[in-house]
Write a structure and sequence with these properties.
With about 325 residues, the protein is α/β, with parallel strands linked by helices. It is built from eleven helices and eight strands.
C-alpha cells in the first residue's frame, strides 16, 4: 500500500476467514467459480454497479446449492441470507473509486516500472553514411530520452535496451551484423564499427534483417523495431519493376509478409523512418499486412517522414514515436 500498489485479499466460502482483518481492501466469494466472472466484469471498460455483480453471483450460487441440495428451499434461504450479509465487492468498489480496470502483470521494469526494447534494422549500404553517423551520435541520448519521457508522462521508471541489425545485401560479406539487446552505449560502439558500403542493385536485404530481428532476445513490455531504409526489399511487387537482381523476392526463400505477421504476433511494434519515395510501394503493402484492421492504434505501423533529416530522427522523432505507442500499452 505504501508503494501505491492496491492489494486485495480474497476470502472464499461462508466460514470466517479473517480476510477483512488482514487486508485494507478485501472481498469475499462463496465459491471459486464465482471469481473469473466477477473479475471479468470489474475489468470491463465501463463500470458495473455492485448490485449487478451481486445479483449475478447470487443467482449462480443459489443455482449451485439447489443442484447439490436437491432443491432444498431451506438451504437456499440460508444461503441467500448469508450472501446478503457478505460485503462481496462493495468494499473493493469503494477502495478502487473511479478506477475500473484491474491489472495483474509481471513487469520487467520492476514494481511501478515499464520496460522498452528498441531494435534498429539499419540499412548500412553506401548511401546511408549520414544515417549511420546520426545513429552513433544520438543513440545514447535517444535511449535516455525514452526513459525520461516515460517517467515524466506516466510517473514510472523505464528500463530501455537497444539492439542493432546492420544490414546490406546478398553478396556483401557483412550482409547482416547483429548486436543483441544491451545498453545503448554498447550499440554506440557497434555503430562505430559500421561503414556505409555494399548494396549493388537498388533493393536491399530487408527480409534478412527482419528475420534476424525476430531472433533477438525480446522480453520487454514495449517492443519496437525501427526500420531505417532508403530502399525497398527484394521483389518487383514491392517497388517499380526493374533494377532488382531478385525480382521474384528474397533468394533464400524468406517471405517478408510472413515475417511481418510473426512480428505482430510477437507484439513487436514497427516504426519506419521514411527517407524517400522509393520505399512507398513496399510500405503500402506492409501496412496492408501488418496494420490492425480494427481500432487498435497500437498495432499500426508508425511512419516518420522527416525529409531525410537523420539528426532529427534520432534526437526526437523516434523516441516520440516510441513514447506515443508505449502510453497505449500502460
Amino acid at each position: 500500500d505504501d508503494a501505491g500498489v492496491a492489494v486485495f485479499g480474497i476470502g472464499l466460502g461462508f466460514e470466517p476467514n479473517g480476510v477483512q482483518s488482514a487486508y485494507k481492501n478485501w472481498l469475499t466469494a462463496h465459491e471459486p467459480s464465482c471469481l473469473p466472472m466477477a473479475f471479468r466484469k470489474w475489468a470491463a471498460d465501463a463500470p458495473v454497479p455492485a448490485a449487478v455483480v451481486r445479483g449475478e453471483l447470487e443467482r449462480m450460487w443459489l443455482s449451485a446449492v439447489a443442484r447439490v441440495a436437491g432443491g432444498d428451499s431451506a438451504t437456499a434461504a440460508q444461503v441467500e441470507k448469508a450472501f446478503a450479509a457478505a460485503p462481496l465487492f462493495d468494499r473493493a468498489r469503494d477502495a478502487i473509486g473511479s478506477e475500473h480496470r484491474l491489472y495483474v502483470t509481471e513487469r520487467e521494469g520492476g514494481p511501478g516500472g515499464f520496460s522498452v526494447d528498441v531494435a534498429f534494422a539499419l540499412d548500412c549500404t553506401g548511401s546511408m553514411s549520414s544515417w549511420i553517423a546520426a545513429a552513433k551520435k544520438h543513440i545514447v541520448a535517444m535511449s535516455k530520452k525514452i526513459s525520461d519521457d516515460v517517467k515524466k508522462s506516466a510517473g514510472m521508471s523505464c528500463d530501455v535496451r537497444v539492439a542493432l541489425v546492420a544490414y546490406r545485401d546478398h553478396g556483401d560479406s557483412n550482409r547482416l551484423v547483429v548486436t543483441d539487446f544491451t545498453a545503448a552505449s554498447n550499440i554506440e560502439t557497434a555503430l562505430g564499427r559500421e561503414v556505409a558500403s555494399g548494396g549493388g542493385d537498388g533493393p536491399e536485404d530487408i527480409a534478412g534483417a527482419f528475420s534476424a530481428a525476430l531472433g533477438l532476445s525480446w522480453k520487454a513490455e514495449g517492443r519496437y523495431l525501427v526500420l531505417v531504409a532508403d530502399a525497398p526489399c527484394h521483389g518487383d511487387k514491392y517497388h517499380t519493376p526493374g533494377g532488382d537482381t531478385y525480382p521474384a523476392g528474397d533468394p533464400t526463400g524468406l517471405n517478408i509478409e510472413e515475417l511481418l505477421r510473426k512480428m505482430k504476433g510477437d507484439n513487436i511494434h514497427l516504426i519506419f523512418t521514411r527517407i524517400n519515395s522509393y520505399t512507398d510501394i513496399m510500405m503500402k503493402i506492409f501496412h496492408d499486412v501488418y496494420d490492425d484492421k480494427g481500432d487498435d492504434p497500437a498495432f499500426k505501423i508508425k511512419e516518420i517522414d522527416l525529409g531525410g533529416n537523420a539528426d532529427l530522427a534520432f534526437t526526437s522523432a523516434i523516441s516520440d514515436a516510441v513514447l506515443e505507442n508505449a502510453m497505449m500499452l500502460m
